[in-house]
Automatic annotation (TrEMBL), chains A, B:
Single Gene Ontology MF annotation: oxidoreductase activity, acting on NAD(P)H
GO BP annotation list: copper ion import; NADPH regeneration
Listed name of the protein: NADPH-dependent F420 reductase
A single GO cellular-component term on record: plasma membrane
Cited InterPro entries: NAD(P)-bd_dom_sf, NpdG, P5C_Rdtase_cat_N, STEAP_metalloreductase
Organism: Halococcus salifodinae DSM 8989
Domain of life: Archaea
Keywords: Oxidoreductase
Length: 190, 190
């Protein structure tokens, strides 16, 4: 993202929240500056760009950085949406392959619909499934996720277990397409 | 299954239910006789045998038969359980490939833990995700699933969408392995 785009997007979020009486210090900038100034770097971009985006900022990442991969590779055909398995096994592992070895990657947030998260009046009762090889980094992301009301974070084990988490997202779309009254679906394990 | 095994398993189920004051007419027999006498044929066998089992009884299936595929192909490695994608795309499609063209296949019940279903005191609030190319057959399986208290059946579209449903099952095991107090997990979409 370019600096002006980042600034403008951040201003939108600030204004939306200010309208509800919530003051925030959300700020936007370009990718390199964002990476350099962040502890938690979320690669919130389309799956085809996730690895490239992180690779482009890999030298900007700080020593304390944690990279979070929320992207899902999907393809649509005549029957619906399908998980389009990346060569690395999952998007999260493709991102890990271009991240410096000392920076931990956590896979998370794939199964949350943007429509559900941005509807600030919606009550959530959903799970965020987290996977990764660094227990401390995973713990930080679990805490972050659970700061959102109605979200529970669950641990699916090492990063190599991310594919089965990412695969749920095309199913969520297929379910919304085939069942009346369902949209912006998430998942709860019980 | 051989006739005596089938009979003995059926007697176990009858007795367990009789102990709770429930009379049933559960009966067991060999696979060919079961196929010949059934409208709904559930290939409840390990994934490696699902297609072979149905192929062995294909000439015994009646004109009204519906074949239900609940199996999931999984492999375990050092990180946990993984979906082991069959060449046909999913177990359900592998079963469909050996079933007579006029017999519809419905993929369903993959994400229910045996431990949860056989614990007759457990209250369920889970989803059964159904996929298939024959709307009528899917409707029959939806009704069957929803006759079980606490189960809701959702339609994921055509049979080609089964892989993403089957993929959830190894994740359910990974979650049970990595989160205290979770076991025999199922899934709910909301």
């Amino acid at each position: 993202m370019y600096k002006r785009q980042g600034e403008s997007r951040a201003a939108d979020y600030r204004n939306r929240l200010a309208d509800r009486g919530i003051d925030t210090d959300i700020s936007g900038t370009d990718n390199a500056s964002a990476a350099a100034g962040s502890r938690i770097v979320v690669a919130g971009v389309p799956p085809a760009y996730a690895a490239d985006t992180i690779e482009a900022v890999r030298d900007d990442l700080t020593e304390e950085a944690i990279v979070v991969s929320p992207a899902v590779a999907m393809a649509r055909n005549g029957t619906g949406f399908h998980y389009d398995t990346p060569e690395a096994g999952s998007v999260a592992e493709a991102v890990a392959a271009v991240t410096p070895d000392e920076v931990p990657i956590v896979s998370a947030f794939q199964n949350l619909a943007a429509g559900a998260l941005t509807d600030l009046d919606r009550e959530l009762a959903l799970d965020v499934v987290v996977s990764g090889d660094d227990a401390d980094a995973k713990g930080v992301v679990v805490e972050l996720a659970e700061e959102i009301d109605g979200l529970r974070a669950l641990d699916a084990g090492p990063l190599a277990n991310s594919a089965e988490i990412e695969s749920i997202t095309p199913l969520l779309i297929n379910l919304a397409m085939n069942n009346d009254g369902m949209h912006d679906l998430g998942v709860r394990f019980q």
